[in-house]
Amino acid sequence: MAPEAGTAPRIEWERIRVVGIDLMDTLIVDPFREALAEATGERIEDLEGLVDRGAWPAFELGEIDEEGYAARYFLPGSGRTLDAARLRRALFRRYRFVPGMRDLARAIARVRPVHVLSNYSPWYEAIRERFELDLFASGHHPSYEVGARKPDPEYFLRVARRIGVRPSAILFVDDRERNVRGAASLGIPSLRFDSATQLRRDLRPLLRGARG
Q: Which among 45, 111, 126, 196 has the fewest CB atoms less than 10 Å away?
């Protein structure tokens, strides 16, 4: 069973070779709701029944590009169209580090390689550049490249192969319970993220420099 946020499971720290950290609402604040309201002029709650819920996952899997996402977002007959470029601009105006996470990610990188494990579209690359994620991240595994999405076990298995380690050698951190459970089901030590303060506390044994 995956732990509740702020409750660290028993981890064999000497076996951890890589720390895999989620992007949205773990490293970077996810402002999708606010950005969508700006781009469409409507609240996300008011669009219920008008949108194709499979559009964003398909974009995250690389099955469609930005133009395809815009064309698919609203259902036929909704009388609406999405300006995906406007949505992208609204998102990028609002993206920012989760408080405390830039410094914590750099601290983690001093004792273990950090890899970013994210469900995200090709827009990921612009986030990577803007926030200089390469200053602490040794690897990037956005779903559009991996060809699978969390919490699908295949996502984690493919990422482990990309990194070149056993799944159990990755410590996974994510704010979403279903993603944490998906990783934990494969024997991947997993922590549910709540705040940088909580994560720093949970990682205290690692940050003290524990090495296998």
A: 45
